[in-house]
Amino acid sequence: MGGLDLLSLVFGLVISLLLLRKFLLVVWWIPRNIEKQFRNQGIKGPSYKFIVGSFGELAKIYGSKAKPDEVVPPIAIGSQIKHTLIQDLLPHLHLWIKKYGKVFLYWYGPSPRVVVTDPELIKEMLNNTKSFIKAIPHPAIYDLVGDGLLFAEGEIWARHRKIISPFFTIEALKGYVQTCISSNNEMIKRWNDLILSDGPEFEVHHEFRMLTKDIIARTAFPSNFKQVDRIVELQIKQMSMLTQALRTFYIPGSRFLPTPFNIESWMLRRELEKMFRELIKSRDKSSKDNDLLGLMLSATNNEHDKGNKMSPKELMDECRIFFVAGFETTSLLVTWAFVLMGIHTEWQDKARHEVEQVLQGKPPDYDSLARLKIVNMILNETLRLYSPAPFIMKTVEKETKLGDLTIPAGIDLEIPLIAVHHDSQQWGNDVDQFNPARFSEGVVKASKHPMAFMPFTSGARVCIGMNFAMMEAKITLVMMLQKFSFVISPNYKHSPDCLVTTSPVHGAHIIFRKI
């Protein structure tokens, strides 16, 4: 062996040892050190296991649970069904909160996650946007929503929020009421025809997706409706693929491998980007800028105020997130409200009576919506039981205080809204039952702690579209209650899933009767 060969061998050995050291640091020494830091502060959780973290315990827990498509239909159980989402869908949270408390540590492989369900600590996190920033729990989520308002931070978030805010002012919302009414009227007419030809049963999740797509297209993205239809179709497919991705263990870098799943995902993303470019281009040729896309295009073309300028990529990312938020979250809120009123028809009757008293047979307007107390109670209870977005993820880039705890840099924090909304200590022993009366004195008095209810999050980063979504949902409920009575169908399977959004796996089948 020559001197050069020996040098190469030594060099290779040194590199291998350095890589091994780095590997052991990441998968053993750092996790053990973090675990020790938290245990010294009284924070416990399932013990870290080499490389796999908590996946062994998770596999045991979920191996004994029914899949979403194995859940018994509520119609077979009766109207007193308990909506036990934590026990049924997130049993690890149910068990670990009981065992370790409202703050605990678990491991996503070698990556630490701190789960926080204490409302006071959540309040502190959401109010401290500089220390606790948004985390992306899985790279596939970025493909769906991009780097827009949902995940932007600091100056970028503030600039985007300023540009978009005029679309969501009270005066702007008042202007969208008639559009919402027109879209609902078209759906009602179509339903009346379908009831005569095909029967009275509808799968309402699909129907309300189409309704909210129509409303978001008319108010925020007035353009070619065929483009809008295709974008929504592609994003629904993308959400389905995201759900598949979240069910598998993610190996860093694996999304760049040319697997059949990844190739399909890449093609889907490219087609969506093409559709958004065409949508933006066709809208750019029209004149008015008072819709959401128009406001963002004005910012993109703004050469006079570069501090409020939006780049073409930023524009596309905002289109992505507002399409998803615009049609999916609102359609889920309305879908679950109809499911719950279809089971608990006594609340449907109360809401209809209120609508008759307030509106006297007239279409709703913005001011009359505020007087519909029972309708609002039903929507809030729906949001509590079936929050469209079940989780908030945060991360800390440097060591940060949270209450009496010291959170090391690089730790992800998980706020399971669904667990907070189903906490019997906050909501009482009927926590898993549909009881809109708990909101009879408003949101603040509904639970022991005001932060126990935050379906649109809270603090500075509260969902910008909250009032739009609630207005849209109220108009739909009001107009449907004026025209139809309804009950849950015997064909309905109660099979919610909450990996991406809290959605009905097998749809929501409801039987309607014209009034």
Automatic annotation (TrEMBL):
Cofactor(s) for this UniProt protein: heme
GO biological process: secondary metabolite biosynthetic process
Entry annotated with the keyword Iron: yes
SUPFAM superfamilies: Cytochrome P450
Sites where the protein binds heme: C463
Chief place where the protein resides: membrane
InterPro entries recorded: Cyt_P450, Cyt_P450_E_grp-I, Cyt_P450_sf, Cytochrome_P450_Monooxygen
Keyword S-adenosyl-L-methionine: no
Molecular-function annotations in GO: heme binding; iron ion binding; monooxygenase activity; oxidoreductase activity, acting on paired donors, with incorporation or reduction of molecular oxygen
Transmembrane portions of the chain: 6-30
Keyword terms, alphabetized: Heme, Iron, Membrane, Metal-binding, Monooxygenase, Oxidoreductase, Transmembrane, Transmembrane helix
Gene Ontology cellular-component annotations: membrane
Annotated compartments: Membrane
Gene3D superfamilies named in the record: Cytochrome P450 (1.10.630.10)
Family per record: Belongs to the cytochrome P450 family.
Record-given protein name: Cytochrome P450
Organism annotation: Aquilegia coerulea (Rocky mountain columbine)
